[in-house]
Write a structure and sequence with these properties.
It contains three helices and four strands; from the N terminus they run ααββββα. The chain has a four-stranded antiparallel sheet with strand order 1-2-3-4, with no helix packed on it. A hairpin with a 5-residue loop joins β3 and β4. It is of the alpha+beta class and 130 residues long. Among the domains are: 35 residues; 44 residues.
């Protein structure tokens, strides 16, 4: 670097205005950094999920379906390897194996109905007919 260029850079640095400081600026910088990291993580996870990446799930055990019987009891259809099991779960004790189901006897799962929030509210607003 030439001495003239170096002198000009030092003079410009001396004449640069002071940046505001304090706790408010530090808090704002921290919040902006947190937001940027959160958005980046969301984008990366969404991108990875679209390409079939799994996070925290086992490929050997899959919950095929859950049916709530009431607030405390449920039935789970669980696939373990080649086997499909019907398991009962409640808050009173450990899960109970109810039966083994033949995988070929299961119907294909229906695709989830695309329901708009407005339609759900309209159904809830309807009074039951007597």
């Amino acid at each position: 670097m030439s001495p003239l260029l170096l002198a000009a850079l030092l003079q410009a640095a001396d004449e640069a205005p002071e940046l505001p400081g304090g706790y408010g600026v530090a808090l704002l910088q921290s919040l902006l950094a947190l937001a940027a990291v959160s958005v980046l993580a969301w984008v990366v996870l969404r991108w990875a999920a679209k390409r079939g990446a799994r996070f925290g799930s086992s490929s050997r055990v899959k919950v095929l379906e859950r049916a709530a019987l009431d607030a405390r009891r449920s039935l789970y259809l669980v696939e373990v390897g080649e086997r499909v099991l019907l398991v009962g779960v409640g808050d009173g004790g450990p899960p109970t194996l109810l039966t083994e189901v033949d995988p070929e006897s299961l119907p294909e799962p229906a695709p989830p109905a695309a329901t708009r929030f407005r339609e759900v509210l309209a159904r809830m607003a309807k009074k039951p007919s007597d």
